[in-house]
Amino acid sequence: AKMAAAAASDLLTGWCLFGLALLAILIFCWVYVRKYQSRRESEVISTITAIFALAVALITSALLPVDIFLVSYMKNQNGTFKVWADANVSRQIEDTVLYGYYTLYSIILFCVFLWIPFVYFYYEEKEEDDGNTCSQVKTALKYTLGFITICAVLLLIGAFVPLDIPNKKNSTEWEKVKLLFEEFGSSHGLTALSFSISSLTVIGMLAAITYTAYGMSALPLNLIKGTTSASYERLENTEDIEEVEQHLLRIKSKCRDGRPLSSRDRRTLQQLEERLRTLRRRERHLESIEKSWWTKFCEAIRPLKVVWGVFFIIVALLFTVSLFLSNLDKALHSAGFDSGFIILGTNLTNPLNMLLPVLQRVFPLDYILITTIVMYFIFTSMAGIRNMGIWFFWIRLYKIRRGKTRPQALLFLCMILLLIVLHTSYMIYSLAPQYVMYGSQKYLVQVRFTVATYSQLGNIFRSLLFVILSPFNLDQCIVTRTYLFLHKFWFFSAAYYFGNWAFIAVFLIGLIVSCCKGKKSVIEGEVDDDDSDLSDDELSVYYH
């Protein structure tokens, strides 16, 4: 009865913590979306969609530490299973986590292939045809049908292309087709879902290489270097305004006697007038920032930003070195491309693999570290997207700017984050493969020995205890559900392996570029030549 009461108490505590975490995630998503969306172009449906998609991304990323914790919690420190963790209970826990993955991944498929494309095309049509709602819905559904077709093709490929087909030379074509349907029925379509998710993960890998790798270098260095002073920028801006005004007067003076301006002077005059409008908008923004309480608060916590920047760059370097050593280990000791560069165990120890077993001795330091790395991966992805904007190859589609981001750009941002989150699990696995597979589990080893003399007993006992406490035995440890998702298809694992090398290269390039760049402007990206004067009112909300 006491054990049942304790288990019920732990379950209630767990649900309470889960509820608080979910509430915190929803509040963060609402604040983040409201901070960046345009006040003039904000729509209810796009706002709800962006908040929901961002929340799904964060919840999915948080499932990895929970998965690792649950498989570790079922065993004692001496390698034995806990009393309550019998075969049925452990199987129920594993199935619960697995169904959690399937549910969240199915929601991601729904968002990526149906809901987000529909909302995006609906507002694209709304800008062109601001009258007939029915026509807008029909057009949006027509374009969304293409995404649904791609999803259906991926599901069919994953369902009817088995990984292992028995090689029977005498089997007929009907028997082969029957085998495909039998495999589909035995897996209940879960292999199809796994194939579709793995396909999206490859796209997420490309997004991580583009945005996350740059964000990991840009975010810490921007915190360390800070921004230029608003008063100093305002002084420089005033000088630029005076210079442009004088240049305008010189050009206009040429036509005072009635002579027409040359085509070259007219083009220069038009460019200078546009430049003057931009400078005056900058002047208004700088004046608002200089007087705002938020600027004063940021200046007061400047030392704290430097500390956070140093901490983030240390985490980024730890991340990159561990990823390099893990990939090097696969290159040297794996079975090669045909196996997806998969290895069981580690031959080259990386810093993260060394640090996690040490932190396991003090609960819950190892879970705090792995959660920090996952959240760092997500937030640096946000920073990379915010700094670079939304690109399609060399074409810049949208900018992510505070208080001035269009609904379509926010939808793109959330879709990219959903794809990056799918790749997060493999990135963490690459950093600490054994920990992601088994957590802090330990196993028992039966060793037969004969003690010759009593004096040898102490040394034998110490060596035996070392063997007992050594982790990661395939037969006596429970594998996380994350690992089963990661290595269901070897060719995707091979793609992830090469993607890790590209990630390291982009991070190093971004680090060099960020070091060479000077301080960012205090209104970096907030004022552009193509902005209207009405957009100034949107940003003023944050400074007054």
Question: How would you portray this structure in words?
Answer:
This protein has 544 residues and is mostly helical. It has 2 domains: 1-163 and 194-230 and 290-337 and 345-516, no CATH class; 237-289. It is built from 18 helices and 2 strands. The protein has a two-stranded antiparallel sheet with strand order 1-2. A hairpin with a 2-residue loop joins strand 1 and strand 2. Helix 1 packs antiparallel against helix 2 (44-73), helix 2 packs antiparallel against helix 12 and helix 3 (87-128) runs antiparallel to helix 4 (133-160). The longest helix is centred in the N-terminal third of the chain and has 42 residues, at 87-128. The model is unreliable at 165-170, 449-474 and 540-544 (pLDDT under 50). Belongs to the LIMR family. LMBRD1 subfamily. Residues 262-289 form a coiled coil. It is a multi-pass membrane protein. Keywords: Cobalamin, Cobalt, Coiled coil, Lysosome, Membrane, Transmembrane, Transmembrane helix, Transport.
Number of domains: 2
Number of strands: 2
Query: Helix/strand-derived class?
Result: mainly alpha
Arrangement of strands in the largest sheet = 1-2
Separate helix tally: 18
Principal-axes geometry comes out as: globular
What is the arithmetic mean of pLDDT? 75
- Distance from first to last alpha carbon: 60 Å
**Helix and strand element order:** HHHHHHHHHHHHEEHHHHHH
Low-confidence stretches: 165-170, 449-474, 540-544
Radius of gyration: 29 Å
What about the largest sheet? 2 strands, antiparallel
What proportion of the residues is helical, as a percent range? over 70%
Q: What percent strand?
A: under 5%
